[in-house]
Amino acid sequence: MIKDFDRWLAPIAKRKPSTIMHIDAEQLHGQIAKQRGEYSANRAIQLARSVFNKAKQFKIYQGENPFSNLTLFPEEPRNRFLSTAEAARLINALQDGLHIDLHDFIMLDLMTGARKTNLLSMRWDEISDLSSMPVTWTIPETKNGTSQVVPLGADEIKNSKAQTKKI
Length: 167
Fold this sequence. Notes:
Blueprint: H1 2-13, H2 22-36, H3 38-57, H4 84-94, H5 100-112, H6 116-120, E1 135-139, E2 148-152, H7 154-166
Antiparallel strand pairs: 1-2
Helix pairs in contact: 1-3, 2-3, 5-7
């Protein structure tokens, strides 16, 4: 985050917060969009908005947040998936002596598509009975606050049984 602050907000970093106006925020947004792209410009404005909000929360700044009510550039949601070649290279690299727990974690991530935080907090009581098919993993609370059921195939179950023997 400090790199982002330095990269995006350097033009206003040395100014007193009370001297930064809404028009300055708009100009900075446009300038970053031209130099680094609209997505970077949006992230910069969100970071600056957050900095001002925290300063107000900590009572070290009293004025209005010049970055609030700034219209962000439209963004298209991005879905990025590994190509077959990329997945093959990753799996080959994993089999070349990587720490076994990291290997199992990455393979389970590849097979389920679950978020890292969900995988890290996975518990055995969230897994349905391994002896009856289909086996599922119920994530109690996802990022959006809902639960999610993830079907587990034979490879995921094989890896989970191997992990159980290690524990």
